[in-house]
Amino acid sequence: MNNSINSKKNAARTERLQKRLDSGIMAAEFPHVASIVISMIYTQKGMKESLPRVVNFFPASHAFFRVNCLSKDCVDGGFDFTQVIEGMVGHKKKVVKGQLSCGGNGSCEDNHSTIVYEVVIQYA
Length: 124
Fold this sequence. Notes:
Largest sheet: 4 strands, antiparallel
Radius of gyration: 15 Å
Strand content: 25-35%
Number of helices: 4
Number of domains: 1
Structural class: alpha+beta
């Protein structure tokens, strides 16, 4: 059974890497965006303290806005900001706040990992 979980993790990791490579570069996909900063507070059932986390995207970054779940047992999960960011760029918004839950399998199913986030976009 452990081999099955590892196999699923490896397959998910490979698929995520390929999607990242296929996403293109931010400068080409969003030429009017200078930077994107995603600030998160990560919580999980059973954690004593929340974890702050910041992810930065620049023109040379891949336009892949999925952030991995911090749970080591999470399979094919994470937090997808693609629609949030595409909506912000489409409406020229600079700041959006919200909350997302991890949609992964493994420990996330039972422990319900969530983030409260703020996305800040700086336009060129």
